[in-house]
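Blinded run. Sample ID left blank on purpose so nobody reads anything into the name before looking at the predicted structure. Input follows.
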Amino acid sequence: MEINYPEIGICGLSCRLCPRYQTGAASKCNGCKSSDRMAVGCPFITCAIKRVGVEFCWDCRANESCEKWRKHRGTGKEHDSFKSYQKLEDDISFIRAKGIKAYDEQQRTRESLLLRLLNEFNEGRSGSYYCVATTVMDINELRDSLEEATIKSRALSIKEKAKIMHSVLDSIALKKGYCLHLRRLE
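Blinded prediction complete.
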C-alpha cells in the first residue's frame, strides 16, 4: 500500500514533534511509518496497515468500536511515552474536521518552530521539553515566544539563552495551564 504521510503516526501522533525523530543519535526514529518502524511493527502498524490496508486508524471502518485505539487514546489523556500525547484527541478532531493535508501543513509549521528552538535555544538538555512545548502550545504563542526570547537573549551564551526561553515558555504555560513535560506512568 502507498504511504502518503510517513511523518504522521497511524494513531494520529505527529512524528515531526517527537524527540526520537529530532535526535541525531543512534536512537533516531525516521517516523512511525518508516521502513525501520514498519519492520519492527507496533499494534497499529500490524492492524491498520498490514491487516486492514489503511494508513490511519480513523480511516478504518471499525474505528469507532476499536478497543485498541480507544484504549490508546484514553491512556493518552493522562500519560505520555517518549512523545507527548496531550493533544492527540484535539489533533484527531482537527484531522476529521479539516483533513489530513491541513494537519500535515500545521505539523510542518510546528516542526519549523521546533527546529528554531533546537538550533537557537537548546543547551543539550532541552530537546524533549521543546518537543512537548511545540506539541502543546498554540503556534502564535510559539512564534511570539521565539521573538521575545531572541530579543532578550542577544549576545548571551547558549545556556543563558535556554534559560530565557524556558522562562518565556513556562510563563505562558502557567497562565494557560499547559503541561510542558512528559506525563509518565508511575
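Unblinding after everyone has recorded impressions. The chain is about 55% helix and 0% strand.
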